[in-house]
From TrEMBL:
Keywords: ATP-binding, Kinase, Nucleotide-binding, Serine/threonine-protein kinase, Transferase. This is Protein kinase domain-containing protein. GO terms for molecular function: ATP binding; protein serine/threonine kinase activity. CIPK serine-threonine protein kinases interact with CBL proteins. Binding of a CBL protein to the regulatory NAF domain of CIPK protein lead to the activation of the kinase in a calcium-dependent manner. GO terms for biological process: signal transduction. SMART domains: S_TKc. PANTHER family: CALCIUM/CALMODULIN-DEPENDENT PROTEIN KINASE KINASE-RELATED, CBL-INTERACTING SERINE_THREONINE-PROTEIN KINASE 25.
Length: 189
């Protein structure tokens, strides 16, 4: 019989869904309701070593601030001595990137995704939040084919603006930043 991992008596941890530089994301299940969730697990030691603890705190603050139908919902944050756990809405449909990689989207479908993206970005901006890493891999699709923005790890808040109203930090995914720079877009975000 397979041994299961249970977090804080509340969530059963399942299969690995993906991993990034500082975190792994697992499928999970809330035991009391049987609801599927995504659980992002972050190593405190690695984050401290890289000097990223403020960034993690900012990500939590931002995700609590931006509750919108087209943004992945942060349900709960928990921690142990060695790990931080983000319990989030589980988005079943995968990345928009995978859908686009299969071929051209139909115009009405592309328009729907664009309108949902603009609605969510406008909502973020109305609260002073800049995502700073929007790309097809961070745009998820739910079971109803609705778009959800994920990964606010590089986001910024108004207090990070300088006197000229700009954020003077380079960020984003290198392949996309290089592409945009080649199109004449400034690298100051």
């Amino acid at each position: 019989m397979e041994e299961r991992t249970v977090l804080f008596g509340k969530y059963e941890v399942g299969k690995l869904l993906g991993k990034g530089t500082f975190a792994k994301v697992y499928h999970g299940r809330q035991i009391a309701t049987n609801e599927s969730v995504a659980i992002k697990v972050i190593s405190k030691d690695q984050v401290r070593k890289e000097g990223m603890m403020e960034q993690i705190k900012r990500e939590i603050e931002v995700m609590r601030l931006v509750r919108h139908p087209n943004i992945v919902e942060l349900k709960e944050v928990m921690a142990t001595k060695t790990k931080i756990f983000f319990v989030m809405e589980y988005v079943r449909g995968g990345e928009l990137f995978a859908k686009v990689a299969k071929g051209k989207l139909k115009e009405d479908q592309a328009r729907k995704y664009f309108q949902q993206l603009i609605s969510a970005v406008d909502f973020c901006h109305s609260r002073g939040v800049s995502h700073r890493d929007l790309k097809p891999e961070n745009l998820l699709l739910d079971e109803n084919e609705d778009l959800k923005i994920s990964d606010f790890g590089l986001s910024a808040l108004p207090e990070q603006l300088r006197n000229d109203g700009l954020l003077h930090t380079q960020c984003g995914t290198p392949a996309y930043v290089t592409f945009l720079r080649g199109k004449g877009v400034r690298s100051v975000s």
